[in-house]
Amino acid sequence: MRHIFIINPMSGNKQAVKYIPLIEDYFKSKPTEYEILLTQYPGHATELAKRFVKEDEVCVYSLSGDGTANEVLNGLNEGVSLAILPLGTGNDFTRMFQIPEIPLNQLIIETIEGKECFVDYGMSNSRKFLNCSTMGLDADIGILAHELKVKYPMLGSFTYVLAIFPLLIKRKPLNFTVTLDNQTLKVKSLLTAVMNGQYYGGGFTPTPMAAIQDGYLDLCIIQDTNLLRILTLLPKYKAGKHIFEDIVSFYKVKQFNLLSEREISTQCDGEVYPEIEINFKIVEKGLRLRVPKRSLLEEAK
Predict the structure, then answer these.
(1) Quick one: which of 81, 224, 242, 301 is 20 to 30 A from 264 by CA?
(2) What is the pTM of this model?
């Protein structure tokens, strides 16, 4: 198998490139082919990933944050394996690999020598997402958190927490219609998250029941409420202990339609787009994912 490393040199406070010698040293004594490709602009990772096809017997590695991993996913041809080596501020999707926290240099080696699993990914209209797609306030928080991260990189994932409070003050609830298989919901929502994984925003847990091999998207809708109730709900939302709150609803779905009364910001793994109508669906076991052998994910048969 060929190993292709797509590296965003800006990830990890520009620390991503320091792992290149580790990769080169590992393959010096191996007969296996490898290649290291550096991204140069937004969207470049998608272009690079498109070069490879299943017949190449190749695994494409994303050494970066969630946004670059999403770019790689959206360029990945069917049947090509993906590995994610987290070097962002959140690294929320890789929490789903169910392995102990280990240094990245060790994770790189264990992933190269790892196993392959079939996992699900989501579709938001024509865009693929690994971990999550959120709308309105969630997406706006993500935009502001990214701006804070660029300006104050030392804050790391805490930028998401800082971004919440000013946007809560001037929040605009979303009015939309959700059409599921057997029901139609009219919603006035504060927060809406469509999840494949359990986490986003550096460890917030909107859907603690989600799994990336169960064949479902998990939809979490929080109704609009007053600011005091929001402030008491936030710690529970972060810890995944909001599941019994009366203003919170959960749905496990294969596909559904969301139609907003106005154009809203929607994000997929941190990449933000304006939308009015969104068709969501799960692509069950549509991705061949390479992970360390110690991962509790079920190995591909």
Answers:
(1) 242
(2) 0.91
